[in-house]
Each structure stands twice: as structure tokens, then as C-alpha cells.
Design a protein that fits this description.
Radius of gyration: 29 Å
Strand content: 5-15%
Oligomer: single chain
Strand order of the largest sheet: 7-6-5-11-12
CATH architecture of one domain: Orthogonal Bundle
Number of helices: 20
Length: about 550
RNA sequence: GCGCCCGUAGCUCAGCUGGAUAGAGCAGCGGUUUCCUAAACCGCAGGCCAGAGGUUCGAAUCCUCUCGGGCGUACCA
């Protein structure tokens, strides 16, 4: 990589300097510049090193430059307060491009997490209703995060944890039964605290057709039947919604199994053994605050039923026993307090601090456009994910959901996203890929057989070298996006690359009369297309050959 | 009250492990097509980076306070 090349130059020069005055170690920082006159890369080593050596920064910079190898370097300058600016030789860029071409589809992938297993748990919405746009953000966020970890070498498992036990599910069953009775023309009403959405009406009618019995009494057998029917149908519907987004899970984990297997009970005993729980007001409490939680929390209610937290702790022990090296939970901001308590519990039980990480995200809100009637009626209303996907298309939804950093609120201008699809960044990126494909179709037999042997000597335009520099950076971006839970970096990157390419396309012709030039530019194009395809693949957005 | 997140162009947001003149997209205005797809490109305009202090060679970025918005602070999940 270009950056590490510069880094190694600096490192050996720094080591040649006499540091007898101090044995302090210095962190050598090399960064890409944002201005051509500052060169391709710059280092502030002389600024940070000034205090160690006692030399003025500019003088120190000069000393370092005097000891620098000039191999692969076009020019080096001291600039501003003492920055060292590097202008690299064309051959170095050419080597970088060859690296991209040699790696091909593997470019951007790494072995950072080789041999390690990570689980990403996301969505995990209760199967009591259809997915909303809020779940949509989480679905895409989790899915892309999982892909990013796969890209850096981890073995990844996508998991959906669903609640199929407890009060909420009982309420769902009761609500469905009421709708079922209505389907038979009876006057039964959905409980005040129940689920009033239209979706249960539809399920009730389907159910009537298959069961063909009135079930006039909501006795325990009926409750059980309606619970099972409600759950299986809701889960099927959620799976359908997710499939529309191209999200698939490796494992669907049922909460009920944790109760049946006795894991909840065993977990409680485990916590008791650590002295982490106490009784108060007829309930059993977790001493969370002592271990960094926000507040002590109830584990077993006074009615004997376990809380969400109680079961969640058992669930995480289960995850640990499944031998994951890391588990990442993608959750909404409303779970924040819960997360602190969960981490406190893990601490009490002695699990490593880096086993459990949360990717917390803020909510999606819909921006209503003033003066637009339809939108104002929709404002504040839930929008079903399915409806949004049908309106905007899978690719657009996926892109928008991860284009912003998770901890920022995502305010989606629904009307705009729908109307102005032509100005959509998704199409902008896809079109850049299409343009590459189009040129390759035209190039025909001029396409080189062996990419790594192409003569690149005529690839000397500043834009061309700039694009290579950007391609070269891709693996860094992937790694950072994964490790800091920041898929939006990929979106930014793809947009930048597409933009540079579109400009290049406008100013320069790839297919020219000069064979050497054409071959070189086709090689560059190949690299661009390859990286564009990787970004789209990470997002699971299609990379069209034609548009 | 306390805790977490956010406050950057008219709008939606990048940039935040401190670096040299703060960026993109959209919206606005004006241009570009003998030539690989104009779903593109170029130009103009637009900012006391919420505000006030502090830390230092240097702050949108770090610290403190204030103001504004979201979320949490359940024997819901």
C-alpha cells in the first residue's frame, strides 16, 4: 500500500537520526493530503518530534529529509510549520494499481479476523407486527456490518432473536383471537393494550379458512393454538419483509428455548453464586450499579416471571458457549440503559470486556414536506418497511439506511427520495459501474489478456494517479468501517470514487488510437470497476452492466 | 433532576484518535453533446462549524459551562 510505503521511508530515516538525548518512541503518522500542492502524502513527524529532539520543527524536517531514501519519490518538501510533503513517482502508483488488479475480486478483503468467529445480532424485533422503517435501518446496518466483518476475514453468523414467550405474545394471541371472532361475524373486540393493526385482520381471515371452527372460548388450549398460529405467521411475514431487502439470517433464536432448557434458571443461580443479586419488595434484583450499570434492575418480578434483562443475560451466556470470539448487538438508542446493565452483568460473570459490543443507532424519522398533503397526513405515522421498499426499491432503501453514521438521526425526506430518483446517489454510483462495463463491451479484443503485465507507463495524468491513490485506500476503509461500526464510510467512499471516475470519463478517452495508452487506461478502468463492484457488493446493491 | 446521542451551507449530512485555505449531495442561478451511455460534466452563489470560556505552536475536532433537539431513567420488550 502507498501509505505504508511512505511510512517505511520515514521510519528508516528517523532511525538514522541520533536520538541520544531521548529514548521516547514516536508514533509516525502519515496521512493523505487533501490538496495537490501538499503532495500525495504528508507527515507531521517533525512537529511531534520537535519536543523530543529539542530541534525546531522545520530544521528537524530537513534533517529527516536528508536521510530519506529517494527511491520511488519524485519530490520531498518541508512545508508550513514543518510538515514533510511527499510527491511519489509514477512507478509507485503503477505498482499500486497492479496490486489492485492482481487481487481482483479479493481486493479490499483481509485476514484481520482470520480464524475468529463473530456473531451479529440484529433486528430481533418482536413478532407482534410488521417491520417498520426503523427496523429497516437496523436490518441493513446489521447486514452490512456483517458483510464488512466477513470482508476482513471473520467467520460471521447473522442472528435474529425473537420473543415467543411472555406477556406481549399472550396479548398478540388474544388480539388475533378477537379478530378471528370478528371474522366469524362476532362482536369480540381487541383488548385495549392489544395489537390493533390491520395485519391481524388479514391473518384472522386466512386462519378462518384453514381452521374452519369458531373457537367461541379463549381457553388455554385455544390460547396456545392462537399463539402458535400468530407467531408462525408473523415470523413468516417478517422473513418476507427481510427478503425484500435481501437480508437473510443464519440463525433464528427462540427465547422460549432458553426457558425450556433451564438456562434462565441456571443463569440466576450463577449470578446468585457471585453475590450479584438481592431480594427487595418481593422481586429479585441485579446489583448492576456496582458493576458500571446505570441502575439496579429487576431480574425476577414479584409475580415470579423473569424480566427481559434476566433472559437476555442467559441468552448471552448461551452465545458465549457457542464459542463466538465477539458478539455485536445492533440496537436502537432506546435500549441504551439496557445495554449498560447487560455489560455490567457480563462483567460480574467474568467475561472479557471485548466479548460483547453494541452498535447503537438513532432512529429514522420521516420528514414531511410542507404543503404536500399526502405527506402531512403520513407525518408521525408508522410507515411499514414493506411499503417503503415497494415505493423506493431495494437498492435505494439499502443505500439510504447506511449512508449516515449510526449514531446520527436519520431524517429521510420520503417524498424527495421517491420523486427524485434520477439525482439519487445510488444511481450515480451504479451508473459509474455501468460506464465501465460499457467501455469494456466496446473495447472488444483490445482488452488485455493478462492484467498484471499491462504497460502502465502512459498512465501519468494527475487524475489517473489520484484515482489509483483512492483505489489503494479501499482496504483501509473497509477495515475501519468494520471495526468502528461505520458502514457509512463505504457510502462516502463509493460516492467519491464514482465522482472522480465520472469526471475522468468526461475529460479523457479510454479507447484511443494509441494502443499503449488504451491498454493502460483499460487497466485503470478495470481497477475502478472492480472496487466499485466491491462497494456495491458490501451493500448488496446491484451492479448493473447496463442502465 | 441525572445519563447517553446529536447541533457544520437554504435542506439532508460527511469531516471529530487535534494539523496547513471547512467538504459532498440536493435545492438555486448560468453553461457543456462531431467523440467510449448527458442517469454525466463545468462554473457561480451559499459558513463567526449552536454560544461562551479553557488546553497549545495549531481546535469544527480535546476539556468545562450554557442553550437547543432526540432517547433513556418500567416489576415493557
Amino acid at each position: 500500500m502507498l501509505k505504508s510505503f511512505v511510512h517505511s521511508l520515514l521510519k528508516s530515516a528517523w532511525q538514522e537520526l541520533d536520538h541520544s538525548g531521548s529514548d521516547e518512541v514516536i508514533e509516525i503518522e502519515v496521512r493523505r493530503t487533501d490538496r495537490p500542492e501538499f503532495g500525495d502524502f504528508a507527515s507531521n513527524i517533525a512537529l511531534t518530534g520537535a519536543s523530543i529532539t529539542g530541534m525546531p520543527p522545520r530544521e528537524l524536517a530537513q534533517q529527516i529529509i536528508n536521510r530519506l531514501s529517494r527511491k520511488g519519490v519524485k519530490r520531498i518538501e518541508v512545508a508550513g510549520p514543518g510538515f514533510i510533503n511527499f510527491f511519489l513517482a509514477d512507478e509507485v502508483f503503477h505498482r499500486a494499481l497492479r496490486g489492485v488488479l492482481a487481487a481482483g475480486e479479493r481486493f479490499g478483503r483481509s485476514l484481520h479476523g482470520a480464524g475468529k468467529r463473530v456473531q451479529v445480532e440484529f433486528v430481533s424485533s418482536n413478532p407482534t407486527g410488521p417491520l417498520t422503517i426503523g427496523h429497516g435501518r437496523q436490518a441493513v446496518l446489521g447486514d452490512v456490518l456483517a458483510s464488512l466483518y466477513e470482508a476482513i476475514g471473520y467467520q460471521v453468523s447473522r442472528e435474529y432473536y425473537f420473543n415467543d414467550e411472555g406477556g406481549q405474545v399472550d396479548m398478540l394471541a388474544r388480539s388475533l383471537w378477537a379478530r378471528y371472532r370478528q371474522a366469524w361475524g362476532e362482536k369480540e373486540s381487541v383488548p385495549e393494550q392489544g395489537y390493533h393493526g390491520e395485519y391481524l385482520v388479514k391473518i384472522a381471515h386466512d386462519l378462518k379458512a384453514s381452521l374452519q371452527q369458531p373457537f367461541p372460548l379463549f381457553d388455554s388450549a385455544t390460547a396456545q393454538l392462537f399463539k402458535e398460529e400468530a407467531l408462525s405467521r408473523m415470523i413468516a411475514s417478517i422473513k418476507e419483509d427481510l427478503a425484500l431487502l435481501n437480508v437473510r439470517f443464519d440463525n433464528w433464536f427462540s427465547e422460549a428455548t432458553l426457558h425450556r432448557s433451564g438456562e434462565v434458571k441456571r443463569t440466576l443461580e450463577l449470578l446468585d453464586g457471585k453475590g450479584a443479586i438481592y431480594k427487595k419488595d418481593g422481586a429479585t434484583w441485579l446489583a448492576a450499579e456496582e458493576y458500571g450499570g446505570t441502575k439496579d434492575a429487576v431480574l425476577i418480578r414479584s409475580n415470579g416471571r423473569p424480566t427481559y434483562l434476566m433472559v437476555d443475560i442467559a441468552y448471552h451466556i448461551n452465545k458465549w458457549e457457542r464459542k463466538f470470539d465477539h458478539v455485536i448487538n445492533v440496537q436502537g438508542a432506546d435500549h441504551h440503559a439496557q445495554q449498560a446493565n447487560m455489560k455490567a452483568a457480563m462483567r460480574m460473570l467474568g467475561y472479557p470486556e471485548d466479548f460483547l459490543a453494541y452498535c447503537l443507532h438513532q432512529f429514522v424519522t420521516i420528514k414531511a414536506k410542507e404543503g404536500v398533503e399526502r405527506m402531512s397526513t403520513r407525518a408521525g405515522k408508522f410507515i411499514e418497511l414493506r411499503v417503503m421498499i415497494e415505493d423506493l426499491g431495494k437498492d435505494v432503501v439499502r443505500y439510504f439506511m447506511v449512508a449516515r453514521k449510526p449514531e446520527s438521526h436519520l431524517e429521510l425526506d420520503y417524498a424527495l427520495a421517491k420523486q427524485e430518483t434520477m439525482d439519487n446517489p445510488v444511481y450515480y454510483i451504479q451508473y459509474s459501474h455501468t460506464r465501465c462495463a460499457s467501455i469494456f463491451r466496446k473495447a472488444g479484443n483490445r482488452i488485455p489478456r493478462q492484467w498484471d503485465e499491462v504497460d502502465l507507463s502512459l498512465i501519468t495524468q494527475p487524475v489517473e494517479l489520484d484515482i489509483i491513490c483512492l483505489l489503494d485506500r479501499f482496504p483501509e476503509v473497509v477495515e475501519e468501517a468494520a471495526l468502528t461500526f461505520a458502514p457509512h464510510l463505504i457510502a462516502e467512499y463509493a460516492l467519491t470514487l464514482a465522482g472522480k471516475f465520472h469526471r475522468y470519463y468526461t475529460d479523457f478517452r479510454v479507447l484511443t488510437a494509441e494502443q499503449l495508452l488504451t491498454q493502460g487506461r483499460l487497466a485503470l478502468l478495470r481497477g475502478v470497476q472492480c472496487v466499485l463492484r466491491q462497494t456495491l457488493r458490501l451493500f448488496k446493491i446491484s451492479a448493473p452492466e447496463e442502465m
